[in-house]
Amino acid sequence: MVRQIKTELYRMVCTPVFFLAVMMIVVLFLSSIFYMRDGREWSVIGVIIEFSGEELADNESLTAYQAMLAAAGGWFRLLLPLVTAVVIVPAFRIERTSGFLRYEVIRTGKSRYYCSKCISSFLAGGLVIAFGFFIYSIIVSICLPHGGGLSTMASEKRNFLFYILGLLFYGCVWGMLSIGIMGIVKNQYLGICIPFMFKYIYDQSYLKYYDFFGENSVFQSNGLLMISTDNPNSGGIICYHVLICVVAAICFVIGMQRRKDAGE
Questions:
Q1: Distances in Å between the alpha carbon of 17 and those of 45, 100, 164, 209?
Q2: Confidence at residue 221, expressed as pLDDT on a 0 to 100 scale
Q3: Which long-range contacts (CB under 8 A, 24 or more apart) does 53-56 make?
Q4: What are phi and psi of 73, to 5 degrees?
Q5: Cβ-contact 34, 76 below 8 angstroms
Q6: Under DSSP, is residue 85 helix (H, G, I), strand (E, B) or coil?
Q7: Which sign does the torsion angle of CA 8, 199, 182, 188 carry?
Q8: How far apart are CA 140 and CA 53, in angstroms?
Q9: In which element (H, E) is residue 205 found?
């Protein structure tokens, strides 16, 4: 099983598409709104380019740590489903069209193949975020001052850790949704676009019924970016997204079972 997961993950990660997706994540992080003054907004890259060293040194909110906290901005939240799908869907499509899928399923067994495919997609979605955030952290650490960094308070350290883990899990969830959708549809372009369209429709529906769900609801699509020791619904948010991953895995298995190339 472990070898199969490594093989599947290698097919997704060790490709030019994956490194392009990582660069896209870095760009989305850099485009997040970071600073507002006099009715004007600056993105992270805008602050790095336009602000002088003295301005950065005199403003405690313009630090590398604050830039890391501001990474998951609006564009990132909107386009992440598209980026993770670009990593996972083409690799799965190539596997299906190569003609060897039937033999691979027979060799490894259906259950092992389905399980390894879901786990590798889950991990691939998180790795895109991990590599992107690592590169982004290096950039802001070089270009922005380090003053006003992480507090020595244990609660703030835990919240920062939860923020990083929530960010990674956010990518993992969309990785699972991408492979779940590809278990149902055959067209790779639909497989890439459907997660993005689903995210948009889900967000608009949530905003429409915001008064019903309330603030910090477990049903927020971006709830994983808000988990902390101060959020009483953090546990519910995590459980809800775990449930989404399970449903996506079930959709993938059912969809593959109904196909002629599923090893029958």
A1: 24, 22, 24, 37
A2: 79
A3: 56/144, 56/145
A4: -85, -170
A5: no
A6: helix
A7: negative
A8: 13
A9: helix 188-208
HSE-up of residue 243 (Cα within 13 Å, Cβ side)? 9
Q: How far apart are CA 219 and CA 169, in angstroms?
A: 15
Dist CA 217 CA 237 (whole Å): 8
Per DSSP, the chain holds a count of helices (H) and strands (E) of: 12, 2
Q: What is the pLDDT of residue 171?
A: 92
Which residues pair with residue 35 across a beta bridge? 42
Residue 12: is it exposed, middle or buried by C-beta count within 10 angstroms (0-12/13-18/19+)? buried
Has residue 136 got a pLDDT over 80?
yes
In this structure, which amino acid lies at residue 140? V
**Greatest pairwise CA separation for the chain in angstroms:** 68
What pLDDT is recorded for position 239? 93
Q: Are strands 40-43 and 33-37 parallel, antiparallel or unpaired?
A: antiparallel
Q: Is 244's pLDDT higher than 90? A: yes
Q: How many residues does the chain have?
A: 264
Judge whether 105 and 113 are in contact, CB under 8 Å: yes
Residue with tokens 């060897």: 100
pTM of the model: 0.87
pLDDT band at 124 (very low <50, low <70, confident <90, very high): very high
Cβ neighbours around 136 below 10 Å, total:
23
Task: List Cα–Cα distances, 83 to 94, 157, 173, 259, in angstroms.
Answer: 18, 29, 13, 27
**Residue 157: C-alpha distances to residues 26, 106, 140, 161, 163 (Å):** 24, 48, 19, 6, 10
Predicted pLDDT at 149 = 57
